[in-house]
Design goal:
Blueprint: E1 5-6, E2 8-11, H1 27-39, E3 44-48, H2 54-66, E4 71-77, H3 80-89, E5 93-99, H4 102-109, H5 113-129, E6 133-139, H6 146-159, E7 163-168, H7 175-188, E8 192-197, H8 204-214, E9 218-221, H9 235-241, E10 248-249, H10 257-268, E11 285-286, H11 289-297, E12 315-316, H12 324-333, H13 340-357, H14 363-376
Parallel strand pairs: 1-10, 2-3, 2-9, 3-4, 4-5, 5-6, 6-7, 7-8, 8-9, 11-12
């Protein structure tokens, strides 16, 4: 019997997602999002940054109180003060982050490599001694010297860290380099490996799946791909994309992705684009006559993903690209009889109205066209 490899989703909507320009969640919204993530089977929730102040500490503590199965995690810089702030939340897990690229070490920390390694040893050991489970977040790992990445991760492991998060902070990698990098990381140590990918080049989801294929078992994501600049890998895309990785499994309930996305869209004031993969209104909507004709014969012709997997339904709309099969099916659903000639005349009306209005036609308009055609007949 083949053992499936477990992939753990670590959602950062409440931390990195809230860093998207203009996004600010109230405590009630954070609690609603956290509970929706839990209902969706997300096992780890990076819930915020304690160093932001008393309100953030109290909010993190409340999130920790309401969650029953998902594990909340505090995000911290690699400092004792940030660890102390995390302790005040009552959470048991922290992600201690520090830059690993030379440019960020120098510009942000005014530190060199030996100093960064010293901080990793000292602060992680301190956090572990305080009873916290610690992950090392390697900021800008994608632009860091690979040998130094290995050294930093090994240093963190010796200090008591259980995981290394490789962050493609600027979204500058491609799936091929990500896969190769994680194959190498996996061959060097047994630390848990996580990938945190930004979407600056539009490849965050592909990069995340490549990291998982290469040996990572943890994926850092955000609902709707929220996050700084162009955002992060989208939870719904990665969760659905796991089906492309044979031999893997996750605890995410795909049928909960749309209600989760709607909660986050409302709280963030970022409407879900109609064409958004998995959760967009058009994700399982068809207009093209060729496509609809094929779907009516066999759904597999134009649906690699069944909408039922996501608790959704196929939707067929009528417009410029519709064909006879679409119109006949729509009329039949309304209990209306039409011969081929009448159906073709209705189709002409549909195409003309759609081109004029630049949208799909409504049921009311379809009834109007049918009345014209059947009356003339």
């Amino acid at each position: 019997m083949t053992t499936l490899r477990k992939i753990v989703i670590n959602d950062s909507t409440l931390r990195d997602g809230e860093q998207a320009p203009g996004v600010s969640f109230t405590l009630d919204e954070k609690l609603a999002i956290a509970l929706a993530l839990e209902r969706a089977g997300v096992e780890e929730i990076e819930a915020g940054t304690p160093a932001m102040g008393v309100a953030e500490v109290e909010g993190l503590a409340e999130i920790g109180r309401v969650l029953r199965t998902s594990e909340p995690i505090a995000w911290c810089r690699m400092t004792r003060a940030d660890v102390d702030a995390a302790i005040r939340t009552g959470l048991q897990r922290v992600n201690l982050s520090i830059p690993l690229s030379d440019i960020q070490m120098s510009a942000k920390l005014k530190a060199d490599r030996p100093e960064v390694l010293r901080r990793i040893r000292e602060v992680i050991s301190y956090a572990v001694d305080c009873g916290l489970r610690v992950a090392l977040g390697g900021e800008d790992s994608s632009r860091a010297d690979f040998d130094f990445v290995l050294t930093a991760a090994e240093t963190a492991a010796k200090a008591g860290a259980h995981r290394y998060r490789f962050a493609d902070t600027l979204g500058s990698m491609d799936p091929f380099s990500v896969y190769d990098t994680f194959r190498q990381l996996r061959s060097h140590f047994d630390l848990e490996l996580e990938f945190h990918g930004h979407d600056d080049l539009g490849m965050a989801t592909a990069n995340t799946l490549a990291a998982l294929r290469g040996g990572a078992a943890h994926a850092s994501v955000c609902v709707l791909g929220l996050g700084e600049r162009a955002g992060n890998a989208a939870l719904e895309e990665v969760a659905a994309g796991l089906r492309l990785l044979p031999g893997t499994t996750s605890s995410v309930d795909l049928s909960q992705l749309l209600p989760l996305a709607e909660i986050v869209a409302s709280a963030s004031r970022h409407p879900i684009p109609p064409g958004k993969a998995i959760v967009g209104a058009n994700a399982f909507t068809h207009e093209s006559g060729i496509h609809v004709d094929g779907l009516m014969k066999d759904p597999l012709t134009y649906e690699a993903l069944s909408p039922s997997m996501f608790g959704r339904h196929r939707r067929i709309v009528l417009g410029k690209h519709s064909g006879m099969a679409s119109v006949a099916g729509a009329l039949q659903e309304l209990g209306l009889a039409a011969d081929k000639h009448q159906t073709r005349l209705v189709l002409v009306h549909i195409q003309e109205r759609s081109m004029q209005a630049k949208r799909a036609v409504s049921t009311e308009e379809l009834l109007e066209f049918y009345a014209q055609v059947s009356g003339a007949a």
